[in-house]
Amino acid sequence: MGVMNPILKNRLCKLPAGTVIVGKWHKQAYKIVKPLGNGANGAVYLAESKKGLVAIKVSDSSTTITSEVNVLKRFSKVQGAALGPSLLDMDDWWDQKINRTIPFYVMEYIKGEDFFSFIRKRGKEWLVILVLQLLSALEQLHEEGWVFGDLKPENVLVAGNPPTIRLLDVGGTTLQGRAVKEFTEFYDRGYWGLGSRKADPAYDLFAVAMMMIHACYPTKFERKENGRKQLFTMIQADATLRKYEHVLMKAIDGSYVRAMDMKRELVAAIHHDVPRAGIKQSPSRKQHHKKKRSGMIETAFIVVTLLCMYALYLYGQIL
Amino acid sequence: MRKGTLRQILLITDGCSNHGEDPIAMAALAKEQGITVNVIGVLDQDVMDEHGLREVEGIATAGGGISQVVYAKQLSQTVQMVTRKAMTQTLQGVVNRELKQILGSNISMEDLPPEKRGEVMEIVDELGETVELEVLILIDTSGSMKTKLPTVKEALFDLSLSLNARMGDNLFSVFVFPGKQEDVEKILDWTPKLEALSSVFPKLTSGGLTPTGPALRQAISHFQKKRSLRSLIGRDESYFEESSM
């Protein structure tokens, strides 16, 4: 956790199961079941309520809670999107144990698996599919004038059947044109020396590229002298990533203005349609193969046509 | 609403002061003049000694700012986060004072029902994005801090990256202590470009004394100098404290 009073921090991160949180304003009660995770500015718990299971976020700062609630409210206006969890309540809890008011908000509990464990369990072919879904969600968010900001695998959940991605933790969500509110170094283009921290769609797309790289290199690595070169080398050295080299490098360089453009080119790369710079090994052989086969079809077509014409000619002669 | 300027001192140190005035008193002085003091304690091993820890917290509390103790490795993330958080805190204070004026009673954002807080927060966010910011960075170069200076430099570049992404203007100045001849030495005067630091940083040498108090005092007066210069050319800007909004 971030900058926080140590006693309060300890309390917020370790609320025991069974603790009942009652809101001062709306009088709703929530019984803690188990922790779901710790963010930079608070902790999230699974809790029981009258309406069933919910997720509840507690923080030391009313500022954090209020900002995040503001974003969740905006999200709820974006129709049909799998953007964030829906907001259910916001209130203050007087914690007798430490004699302090703890602000909190309550949201829909999304039962799912985090991005990386899902891929580990279900297979690498899911990576690009989930990324395509992610890009669609980001496109919607960007259309509304926002940037997600703190995009990382921990904040992307895969839920339901068919598996669908959901975005969690809106702490970094920022209006376009402003400074990104919260980020994680590894997924931040500023850290890699590849751009500013001003919120624009390309900021999120850089993080998407980093998620794909990290999925293929599970051990976290640090930035070296030349970030771009380092990432490029890693992409080339991995069979899965090499296939999307062109798309990944464009995302890393911030060349995509829209998530949709990246999605389109990623789809094309899946089908080997994109002319790729750099090394061409096994994929190019496959392309060649395809060409050969289509050539044979062409030949067969011409032969059949000629035969038909000859048959017509003979028919005409007989008559 | 007229936009004011936020003034912050960011102190980066790894231990106790041992020379000159009490740094906690100097931090209190800064606060009285509308300057927030934030402190980042840089850890060497697992723990910072009790005395050092208390001083780090004491300075930040007296200076109305935020303190955080971290390993050198986490410095970049921390420096930008502490600065941003302290800005929000100060601005929230300003907005709370405004609320008090409007509503008369002793009311703050926390006293408003949750539904009403959203709009107040949007104002705080908006101010945080657009307000002018002056940060004076005060770096302890004594003793074991010497080995951490490359990391400090990196953290400062990262800070300028975060702050320059805002719409509002920034001015940075950097002081180190102890200086070559005096207690404290200015290595970078007010500039919007913290990157200018590159050339001066490698030349630093570390001394034995740790005059944190005197360094803070000089930092405060560096803000004053700037202000008096501005009033000379007739574009004085008032503090937030002086009802600038």
UniProtKB/TrEMBL annotation, chain B:
InterPro entries: VWF_A (IPR002035), vWFA_dom_sf (IPR036465). Gene3D superfamilies: von Willebrand factor, type A domain (3.40.50.410). Residues 1-91 form the VWFA domain. This is Ca-activated chloride channel family protein. It comes from Anoxybacteroides voinovskiense.
